[in-house]
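Q: Convert this sequence to structure tokens.
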Amino acid sequence: MHPREQTIFALSSGRPPSAIALVRVSGPQAGNALTLLAGKIPAPRLATRVLLRAADQTPIDDAVVLWFPGPASATGEDVAEFHAHGGRAVLAALFAALAALPDVRAADPGEFTRRAFENGKLDLTEAEALDDLIHADTNRQRRQALRQLKGLLGDKARDWRARIIEASALIEAGIDFSDEGDVSSELIAPALEKVKILLGEIEEVLAAQGRSERLRDGLVVAITGPPNVGKSTLVNALARREVAIVSPHAGTTRDIIEVQLDLDGYPVTVIDTAGVREADDPVEQEGVRRAKARAADADLVLWLVDGHYEIDLPDCAAPVWVVRNKIDLEGEGPIAGSSAALRVAPGPTGGIRIGISASRGDGIRELVAALVDFARNCFGSGVGGLIGRERQRKLLQQTAVALQRSITVIGEGEELAAEELRAAALSLGRLLGRVDVEDILDVIFREFCIGK
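A:
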């Protein structure tokens, strides 16, 4: 039996122990699993309390079961749900009873969603959005993923593909009437107009794609600078908890520490790196090397210094903000007209200069506000972006290129333009996952958690 014809089961709720655990079963043997464990198949979509029993009639748990006959289910197959108590022993007994049934096995990561995709319950953009929704860390990420799950990109792609096919049909009809010049031109002209409008719409989406794609991945802010200037103290202040070891001795931080922050709904990863200096210790040398490499890849660098160091900025493409720490030790009070000890002025590489006291908290609120403004400029409003993944962007770019070529080559022959339109429609079909995508499905669905 092919693996996709087997019945699968998995825990679809959080790891035990928990108050309630949801175990989902999907496939042709789902009804049989209900009959054998619950004693009956309840009415569709009606929660029913039952006593679950193993094959030897040993009681497993007092539970609630639900029955969703296909195709009116999440996966398009027969689906059974067992809402049991979330103890480890209960789940172990339930899993053992399910695994003992013929043609029933534990599910692979993302297999429920993959079956839903293969049965036409959602397209590939919606499946990707579901994964993004599960892994959303901030409210803005959640809203973007939810809009995609509702078909924001998929509906657009289906509409574009249908209009490309209409234009292609007109051009191919013009080829059939090529001997009749007036008829041919009457068909080609509206087809080209459709293509130009389509190309404009897709190019507009591509022009705004960077922000929505970046919102999914989040920003990376690297805190770097000389040793013992308070980088770890600043990380702890931003995280509002102790995540990094703070010591008066230089070279304490040897490896990279990452902290995930939610700044007004924007996902930001703040990185504490080793102090940048010449070192004899091989371990510290490796830490310095990693610090420089991470700063080079960051979206923003906070170069932290204090009164003992001259500003010697790193060589990196990202904006650099010079943050002067320990202003409390330098006797600096709040700046006139400011609510806190924040010193902001134009800085090198398009950055700014800020004065803070990471240990006392001066200027931290204003630094966070500046980071939020930076994130807002990078992400935009978070509304209106259609593209969330590199795969989607590349396929839309291929579509746009094919549409542009169809306009360019129409003078060389309608057959060439028709072929380019077929290529554009094929790219959109791949975007939706409806044609020629078998080679990437394993890559996409293995990123899902088991039970989804």
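Residues 181-207 form the longest helix (27 residues).
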